[in-house]
Specification:
By secondary structure, the chain is of the alpha/beta class. It is built from 21 helices and 12 strands. The strands form 2 sheets. The chain has a 7-stranded mixed β-sheet, sandwiched between helices. A 5-stranded mixed β-sheet has the order 1-2-3-5-4. β10, α10 and β11 form a beta-alpha-beta unit. α8 packs antiparallel against α9 and α16 runs antiparallel to α18. It is elongated, with a radius of gyration of 33 Å. It binds adenosine-5'-diphosphate (ADP) and magnesium ion.
Length: 479
């Protein structure tokens, strides 16, 4: 019988739903006991036919199959109106096939000749169930590093962080719904998962559904196609917490919006926590029904903004530390300076630098980091200043910057000085007058003359051309 079940569902599902199932003492029919009411309800919704089939397979007899909660009483539980959580455990029952013909048409398992494997509703995205938390259902496994203590706070995200923490502390009480919005890679999913993990840690039995809006939409579509809306509704309306990631996916899906509206109302009215993430504020989700827009704003709408420089530096440090590395400060700043709008990319850059170092066996330096990130990170060109040009030219020609600013006309000074003016013209946005002004208070005609002269000379004088190129490279390089 166990083998039969094992073959019919995937391993996760078997563990979650049947792993702790035991035969129950039952004289008149065939009964199994499970650990809690949620598992009982779930099997009741999706696996009764499979159980009946398994019994038929094992005994050769069509038996009345029932599932009860261990140590529970045996009041029958109508599937359509599942009991509120705290009522005494009940049982669900389904007869094996021969008797099924007489059952009322709403008998659920009939539609599932096979259990809805590998998904909740046939054809939809696979959902995982976590063995440690049998009442937690999701289309992903929770990422261990998406925890509150791994979330770097900064001015752009601390509100979202605080709100998420408050919701995890008192689901259904603090803010309902919690609506987090912000651009890609800014930590929405991280916070959603942190909420799940925290709530489950405190109360492993909490009934949570956490999934992407895409999965929600797919499941709705499959449920409609299979004529199975009843199950769909039952599933989503009997949870303590519903988290839907990337709710903007509801855009232009009017029927799913309608369905979600009712789910929302049901949960909201029971003070069940609803948490949504989105790439935009509610109002900007295209074609989202007004009544949903307004509901999304009932609780707390909070934005995650792009991280400021300080936060990016902390994120780079933390991501390196999590991987057992400490980056030199200049590398940390280079990464933080160059990747500004997406934490995922920031993390990717750190990973790349570290990967590069460990593959090449070299220690992490600015040079290595620049190499590692070439092509991935488009380093923003540093804003080149006239001062920087003065310094670079002075250094290159072995003269003093003050001399370049001064009046001496010796060739060893006047040529580098003209190079400064030329480069200032080429590499900065300053007007001629400003360039002249900054280089020792010279007239703009002097600048024009210098620019033209150097331009001509680098055509014919290879050495000077090399000099200029070297200086430009240095000014543009990251160090
Ligand atoms: P979103 O869902 O908003 O697109 P994610 O939550 O998937 O973004 O975040 C992308 C990556 O960046 C994840 O690896 C996440 O852990 C990380 N991340 C985002 N914000 C932070 C933060 N403030 N502190 C630490 N890691 C972060
Ligand atoms: Mg996300």
């Amino acid at each position: 019988m166990r083998e039969y079940l094992r073959k019919a569902v995937n391993r996760q599902q078997y563990q979650t739903w049947f792993g702790a199932m035991r035969p129950a003492d039952d004289s008149d029919g065939f009964a199994f006991s499970v650990a809690n009411q949620f598992v009982r309800d779930w099997i009741g919704s999706y696996y009764m036919q499979l159980l009946a089939d398994a019994v038929l397979h094992a005994t050769g007899e069509a038996r009345q199959v029932r599932v009860i909660v261990r140590d529970g009483d045996e009041t029958p539980a109508p599937r359509r109106e599942p009991p509120p959580r705290k009522t005494p455990p009940r049982q669900v029952a389904a007869p094996a096939r021969p008797e099924r013909q007489e059952r009322r048409p709403s008998a659920q398992p009939r539609r599932h000749r096979r259990p809805p494997s590998p998904s909740f509703a046939s054809g939809a995205t696979e959902m995982f169930a976590d063995r440690r938390h049998p009442n937690f259902l999701s289309d992903v496994l929770l990422n261990d590093s998406y925890r509150f203590d791994r979330f770097v706070r900064g001015s752009g995200n601390q509100l979202a962080y605080a709100a998420s923490l408050a919701v995890a502390d008192s689901p259904g009480q603090a803010y309902n719904p919690l609506f987090l919005h912000g651009g890609v890679g800014l930590g929405k999913t991280h916070l959603l998962q942190a909420i799940c993990a925290t709530v489950l840690e405190r109360n492993p039995e909490t009934r949570i559904i956490y999934l992407s809006c895409e999965t929600f939409v797919n499941q709705f579509i499959s449920a409609v196609a299979a004529g199975d809306l009843e199950n769909f509704r039952y599933r989503y309306r009997h949870v303590d917490m519903l988290l839907i990631d990337d709710i903007h996916f509801l855009a232009k899906k009017e029927r799913t919006q309608e369905e979600f509206f009712h789910t929302f109302n049901t949960l909201y009215n029971q003070q069940k926590q609803i948490i949504l993430s989105c790439d935009s504020p509610p109002r900007e989700i295209p074609t989202l029904e007004e009544r949903l827009v307004s509901r999304f704003k009932w609780g707390l709408v909070t934005e995650i903004e792009t991280p400021d420089h300080e936060t990016r530096v902390s994120i780079v440090r933390q991501k390196a530390e999590e991987r057992g590395y400490t980056l030199p400060d200049d590398v940390t700043h280079m990464v933080a300076d160059n990747i500004t709008s997406n934490v995922r990319e920031l993390e990717g850059a750190v990973q790349r630098v570290i990967g590069y170092a460990s593959l090449s066996g070299k220690s992490i330096s600015m040079e290595l980091a620049t190499d590692a990130l070439r092509g991935i990170v488009q380093p923003k060109e540093r804003k080149i200043t006239i001062e920087a040009i003065l310094r670079a030219v002075a250094e290159h020609f072995g003269v003093k910057a003050s001399e370049l600013m001064g009046r001496r006309r010796h060739k060893s000074i006047s040529v580098p000085r003209q190079v400064v003016m030329y480069l200032a013209r080429q590499l900065t946005d300053y007007a001629l007058v400003e360039i002249g002004g900054q280089i020792g208070g010279r007239d703009h005609t002097t600048v024009i003359y210098a620019v033209e002269r150097i331009a001509q000379q680098i055509e014919t004088n290879g050495r000077l051309r090399d000099d200029v190129e070297t200086i430009v490279r240095r000014l543009r390089s990251l160090d």
